[in-house]
Amino acid sequence: MNSSTFQGNWSELKGKIKTQWAKFNDDDLETLKGNLDQLSGKIQKVYGYGKEQAEREYNEFKQKLNVKTNDATHAGIVKANDAVTASNDKVDSIGRKLKS
After folding, report:
1. What per-residue confidence (pLDDT) applies to 5?
2. Its pTM surpasses 0.90
3. Which secondary structure element, helix H or strand E, spans residue 23, and what is its range?
4. Which phi and psi (to 5°) does residue 35 adopt?
5. CB 64 within 8 A of CB 70
6. Which domains does the chain have, with CATH numbers?
């Protein structure tokens, strides 16, 4: 998931960030404005973490989001494939009826 994808889902993502880092207030999140590249620095500032710890938490958070996104994408692809298969079956059935 890239920064533009994060920006597109910003309202959902803000909730996940607040769940992960409860000390963040609305102003902290507003300064990010969907730009997760700045999240590591915000974690450092609000939590007083060193750069390495903040980056580690940031990377773990991004990884969790990516895994969930990949799972959702896979589920969507499976659902779309099932719909295509069902449509093809209907077309085949109609074709057989027309031939008879």
Report:
1. 46
2. no
3. none
4. -90, 95
5. no
6. 3-99 (1.10.1470.10)
